Amino acid sequence: MRSPLSDTLTPGSLIDEKYCVIGSIGTGGMGTVYEAVTTAGEKVAIKVLHTRYICITEVIKRFHRESRLAAAIGHVHICEVIDAGTDANGIPYLVMPLLDGCPLSALTKSETPLTWERLQTIVCQTLSALSAAHQAGVVHRDLKPDNIFITSRNGEDFVKLLDFGVSKVASPQPGSVYTKEGAIIGTPHYMAPEQAKSAKNIDHRADIYAVGVILYELMTGKRPFVGGNANETIFKIIAEPFLSPRRLNPTISKTVEQVILKAMARDPAFRFSSALEMRQAIKSVDHTPSMPPSRETSVPTEISHSGVPFDALNTTSKSINTRIAFIVFAALTAVAIAGTLFFLIS
Q1: I need a surface site. Which of 39, 40, 46, 274 has the fewest CB within 10 A?
Q2: 188: cis peptide before it, omega within 30°?
Q3: Which positions ≥6 away from 51 have C-beta within 8 Å?
Q4: End-to-end CA gap in the chain
Q5: Domain range holding 81?
Q6: pLDDT tens, residue by residue, 290-313
Q7: Catalytically active residues, by annotation
């Protein structure tokens, strides 16, 4: 059995006298997931909150809210929570079906590169789940490959979206507190700029941005923003441009790149207005491999706040800088000539 201060449940441990632990599946930021079996012999997955959080009311609320939100949304591509409670040591837990498969992060490492048809299916199912969540007034806020679980149904990929523990509920009831003001919640690499700034008015478009980042990573094998630590990554997301997908993988079609860049626009106003709109764009996209861009061809690095490709702004900026440099050079030359003449005359 687990001691009150330990995060480890050993095989054979009982939870609430209803679930017998078989072994650990994995550990995340908020808790550890175990494989267990019910008294009826059914295998399940149980997420148990880390003991270091049991005195933090806000974390406890988030943990319990995950079960309520999953039930409220009730979508086929969202992993349901079938039970919830507190163990003998006062540690909250959630019980979910034991899924057979792996997270998208593991799938890409073992089977890279995935075909466009397969990626299209996985991303469209993810967007369907998000659309249902958004219509229920829920923003996931921590979308990443680890939270997109790929199982199989009738021999086809079948997505189950996981972990609504840090989600945001739109228009909460008066007096409800869901997140601490000013707190940055989520995984840095997939955060939207407004989320990285800890803006209070984060909406469903933060999830759309995250899907864009995931698609970028799946298509190029790289993340758009990578820093030496979380703070550096967040700074880059807020302030720096990123390489366009086609610069990293020239075979990506222009239409796929346009979908990614629109989803990842720094200004939410320039992104897809809904998960369904992005899903439709992906379903109808032409992914005929493109010819590699020539050196003379300008490939946009990113979409600016105004919707203008960053390279277009960058080109304008370079032109202005060239003019300024020429003027400065001419002024310095004139001063040098005048000084020489003055020296000769005197």
Answers
A1: 40
A2: no
A3: 4, 5, 6, 7, 89, 91
A4: 98
A5: 14-97
A6: 555 544 343 455 544 434 454 444
A7: 142
Greater confidence, 180 or 48?
A: 48
255-282: pLDDT as tens digits: 999 999 999 999 999 999 999 999 999 9
Alpha helices in the chain (DSSP H): 57-73, 104-111, 116-135, 193-196, 205-220, 230-239, 245-248, 254-263, 275-283, 310-345
The string of DSSP letters for 228-266 reads: SSHHHHHHHHHH-----HHHH-TTS-HHHHHHHHHHT-S
User: Residue 103: which H helix or E strand, with range?
Assistant: strand 101-103
CA–CA separation, 26 vs 277, rounded Å?
34
CA dihedral 98, 100, 104, 108 (to 10 degrees): 150
The pLDDT tens digits for 140-192 are: 888 999 999 999 999 999 999 988 755 554 544 433 333 444 445 557 899 99
Domain boundary among 97, 118, 143: 97
Same domain, 299 and 221: yes
How many other CB atoms sit within 10 Å of the CB of residue 259? 23
Kindly state whether residues 90 and 123 are assigned to the same domain: no
Strands laid side by side in the 31-38 sheet: 14-15, 19-27, 31-38, 43-49, 92-97, 83-86
